[in-house]
């Protein structure tokens, strides 16, 4: 179904610091939780918030093992597991290294300080990776943070940690949830999506791709990838993880109610949920173009394990999420430079393109489908959203109608033809 993910070689970083209240013999090394060693005095065996003796449903007798037990609930969903582990280890490391307190002794007041810390982790050399880079967890340059967290990321961190504390209380490991005492701001209605490209700016991206040079093999390969990447993200509305992990064999065809072939793309989305997305004749034509440019047969078979995006050199293996991210950012950056060269009046549009990312294309796909009159239920199913609202859980669009609506109304239009009239 998808490309496998290789596990990282775990090594212990060398960044060491201890809180003034912690004895020299109890120095804590700032390192990932899977290789973290916590001194006995800070491991939570005697935590002031520990549950009643003999009542815990966990075999864990220290905070680190309790956190690991909580994380096992999410081991089958890599993205969720990585995010939850990241927030848990930040809090645990901050407690033992910055406060000299185990997680099971943290109080409401401690967590108020932690909220402030998330906005500006200091000292930076201890907590933030060099140059804000993303290094493997076994790399000595790894740190818990790549920089200060945005307001939205701070809020998400607290939501995850509140869930962790609630689970530890339910398991009987902790007596109470200090996170529950934090003041929760009233939930605001979801804002209108702003991180997307307008149709006119999207047309500029396509124009940039089409004017790319194609004199050398390298230039032709870059053009082919840029055209295929932008087409795939836009027409299918895929997440970057879905593109990075997808294979050409995920494309398949079946007969529609009208007796004609329909192409679909099977993908493994968020929460390991499978979905199928209509693959329009336009997309299949672009698939053929890309495959032939890369020396492959025109169409894949179901057994084809070729990645959706091929590397320029070396073995035909799946690109990492960061590599796919860099590839689409390269297109946006190039388009921004191209726009600036056209005159100062294009500088604002170029700045917007510089900020764009692969996820902007997912929002762009959804926004343009909605603007083009595609039923919101169809968009929900295409993008793999859980629901529009509670009522929409009971509404469904038949596959044949979803195929027709998506392929007729949502087009790449490399040839410049206008959308079909309403």
TrEMBL record:
The keyword Cell cycle applies. Pfam families: Phage_integrase. GO terms for molecular function: DNA binding. Keywords: Cell cycle, Cell division, Chromosome partition, Cytoplasm, DNA integration, DNA recombination, DNA-binding. It is found in: Cytoplasm. One of its GO terms (biological process) is cell division. Residues 192-408 form the Tyr recombinase domain. Residues 61-169 form the Core-binding (CB) domain. One of its GO terms (cellular component) is cytoplasm. Residues 400-422 are annotated as: Disordered. It comes from the Bacteria. This is Site-specific recombinase XerD.
């Amino acid at each position: 179904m998808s490309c496998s993910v290789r596990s990282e070689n775990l090594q212990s970083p060398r960044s060491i610091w201890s809180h003034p209240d912690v004895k020299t013999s109890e120095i804590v090394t700032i390192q990932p939780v899977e290789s973290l060693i916590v001194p006995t005095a800070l491991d939570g065996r005697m935590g002031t918030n520990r549950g009643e003796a003999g009542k815990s449903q966990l075999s864990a007798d220290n905070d680190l093992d309790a956190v690991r037990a909580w994380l096992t609930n999410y081991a089958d969903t890599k993205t969720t597991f990585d995010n939850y582990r990241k927030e848990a280890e930040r809090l645990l490391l901050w407690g033992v290294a910055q406060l000299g307190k185990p997680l099971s002794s943290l109080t409401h007041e401690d967590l108020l300080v932690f909220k402030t810390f998330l906005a500006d982790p200091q000292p930076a050399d201890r907590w933030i990776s060099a140059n804000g880079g993303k290094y493997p967890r076994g790399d000595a340059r790894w740190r818990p943070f790549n920089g200060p967290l945005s307001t939205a990321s701070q809020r998400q961190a607290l939501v995850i940690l509140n869930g962790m504390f609630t689970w530890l209380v339910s398991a009987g490991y902790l007596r109470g949830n200090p996170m529950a005492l934090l003041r929760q701001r009233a939930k605001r209605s979801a804002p209108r999506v702003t991180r997307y490209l307008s149709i006119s700016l999207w047309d500029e991206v396509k124009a940039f791709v089409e004017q790319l040079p194609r004199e050398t093999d390298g230039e032709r390969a870059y053009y082919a990838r840029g055209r295929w990447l932008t087409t795939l993200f836009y027409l299918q509305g895929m997440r970057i993880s879905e593109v990075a992990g997808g294979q050409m064999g995920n494309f398949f065809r079946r007969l529609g109610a009208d007796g004609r072939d329909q192409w679909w793309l099977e993908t493994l989305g968020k929460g390991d949920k499978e979905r199928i997305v209509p693959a329009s004749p336009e997309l299949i034509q672009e698939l053929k173009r890309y495959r032939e440019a890369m020396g492959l047969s025109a169409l894949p078979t179901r057994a084809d394990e070729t990645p959706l995006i091929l590397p320029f050199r070396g073995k035909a293996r799946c690109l990492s999420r960061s590599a796919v991210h860099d590839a689409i950012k390269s297109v946006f950056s190039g388009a921004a430079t191209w726009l600036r060269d056209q005159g100062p009046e294009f500088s604002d549009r170029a700045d917007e393109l510089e900020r764009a990312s692969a996820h902007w294309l997912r929002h762009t796909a959804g926004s343009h489908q909605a603007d083009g009159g595609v039923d919101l239920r169809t968009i929900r199913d295409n993008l793999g959203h859980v629901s529009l609202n509670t009522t929409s859980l009971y509404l469904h669009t038949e596959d044949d109608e979803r195929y027709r609506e998506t392929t007729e109304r949502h087009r790449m239009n490399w040839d410049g033809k206008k959308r079909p009239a309403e």
